[in-house]
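Re: your question about Glutathione S-transferase rho

S., sorry for the slow reply, the queue was backed up all week. Below is exactly what I fed in.
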Amino acid sequence: MAKDMTLLWGSGSPPCWRIMIALEEKNLQGYNQKLLSFEKGEHKSKEVMDINPRGQLPAFKCGDVPVNESCAACFHLECKYKSQGTKLIPDCEAGLAQILQRVFEVNALVEKSSNVIYYNWKVPEGERHESAIKRNKEALTAEVKLWEGYLQKTSSGFLAGKNFSLADVIVFPAIAYLYRHGLSEERYPKLTEYYKNLMNRPSIKATWPPTWKETPGQDILKDI
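Result:
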């Protein structure tokens, strides 16, 4: 089954990482994969464009079916291999609803963190304003506090229900990305506990971004 799958990915990319975690959880090791370099522009290569015409990573094919949006790919894998590996979506309606809520909600966290982390990259030097930087940081702080609050209300240590689920597969890489960029461990104790507990999960350890092992992180989020 896995031999019919192809994943072109970039190290440190949360969308790529989501799919890799899902594949591990569903016992779909042995798929065709290739690590590409964003810095070298390899995500714009013909090899990628043939699968993902947006020229973005991940570029993922399940058989002959391209599923490049990472959340869609994770749901596709769970639906197609529901009885294999970890059950990532519970049968109960309430459990599914909570997973869907967290999965779609993480887009706000990704957007607000990107507005801080990549501000200087996205905004030309002459158009940058301290007031905008301040607003972006305040918006991200409020967002991170929301996720800290969600974890305060659960005793399971997971984002949706009593067990590790598709919500964790999809959200964890975004949380890890925050800590990679200097989010305070002391300021957000429940989020930090969640991060440290899941970073030792076999599927996550097996797919940890290689560049993160080789190079230090940044501290751009230390004041959040």
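The longest strand covers residues 5-10. The first helix runs from residue 14 to 25.

Happy to talk it through on Thursday.
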